From TrEMBL:
Molecular function as annotated in GO: double-stranded DNA 3'-5' DNA exonuclease activity
Keyword Hydrolase: yes
Name this polypeptide is given: Exodeoxyribonuclease III
Requisite cofactors: Mn(2+); Mg(2+)
Keyword line: Hydrolase, Magnesium, Metal-binding, Plasmid
Amino acid sequence: MKIATFNINGINRRLDNLIAWLGEAEPDIVCLQELKAPDRQFPRSAIEAAGYGAVRQGQSAWNGVAILARDSEPVLTRVGLDGDPSDAEARYIEAAVSGILVACLYAPNGNPQPGPKFVYKLAWHERLAKHAAELFALDLPVVLAGDYNIVPEPRDIYPTTSYDDNALVQPESRAAFGELLDQGWLDALRKIHPKDQLFTFWDYRRNRWQRNAGLRLDHMLLSRKLSRKLTGAGIDREVRGMEGASDHAPVWITLRD
């Protein structure tokens, strides 16, 4: 089985890129972030024509998450995280697919920091950590996939000082990611590539793609039962180089049946 996560950065604007990648990569399950479209504008017919069923939580012009399943319909199990009834941002969705509980997340960016956006980022990650601990305790096959908007380690960003004040690399942000690992979740990409410098995002500005000035923001964390089945992981970097591409590349894992 192949599971992928992809910050599409506008599903309707990048629809041709998405459909082309689905046809080439043939993932069984896909988590999408930054749909930037309300539910009524979700391109369901095009997704279905590509062979995928979908559940989603859309939001106009911003955020939005979806889970796609090849030749099947995901069974929606949760939308949103507990702990803040006032939070209406479309950032978290869960579904059951082929015996796996799939969680798709788009964490807050948190910039500028310090400030209210950074406070919201950390509070959102606290809510995620609480829910993740509950999921891990169930001892089920679970994947937490998406754009965490956290660079876990210094080696996950190109050599630069321009991000020193950025919310993505702050100690508090990295500690939030580390809390998930401490719970027992496995960073699948890092498990398969323990020594490599890995990037999943390249900003459009300052020729960062051309210079390979990237960051690792997109992660797939596996529960104990899925960790035992992990056989491979990678980044489809070439997708970032397509015309009209998202500023993220898809990340994928393969699991033993």
